[in-house]
What does this fold into?
Amino acid sequence: MPSRPCLVGLVGGIASGKSTVARAFARHGARTIDADAIAKEILDLPEVRRALAAAFGDVETAGRVDHRKLAEKAFGSEPAAARLNALVHPSVTAEIDRRVAAWTAEGFRGPVVVDAALLLEAGMKGKMDALVYVEAPEGVRRERAKARGWAEDELKRRERLQWPLEEKRRACGHVVANGGTVEEMEGQVAALVARLCPVPKGET
It folds into this structure.
């Protein structure tokens, strides 16, 4: 029995449905960490807002960080994206470590699924016991991005600043196809939980 929860990192292209797959893991006893939600909380810390203003200029609306404004400036080039990541990633990683430590102290030994868009880029691969690539056809991902209100070229623009999809897939030992039915995806997740890190009785 490991001395801490089994850590499973979700990797995939933008709009591949990593959050949907994370929720499926949760239905099978996993605890989940949404790194994007953590990052949004960090962005509103006063010291981070000051750093954002120094790096990118005005990215606020009504006294809060405007994520659309920030995305336009931060995802316009590789150096700009690197500046944002340097501001946010260390705090996100620290919060993930804190949560895992707290659950370890509780005695939880089931799977903890980390849903982080830039998990590989942030150097978190070594912390994971398993990496799962969430696969979805480009057409499906484009439609999902469009449903978010993104412009036609936004998905490609952002993906150019991340690892290529082929490299992400090669880095992972497991794949969940998320371009078909919910039932098909759920079946794959159930099989992975049973194989990678079954939840001990009483620890869900």
The CA atoms of residues 31 and 109 lie 10 Å apart.
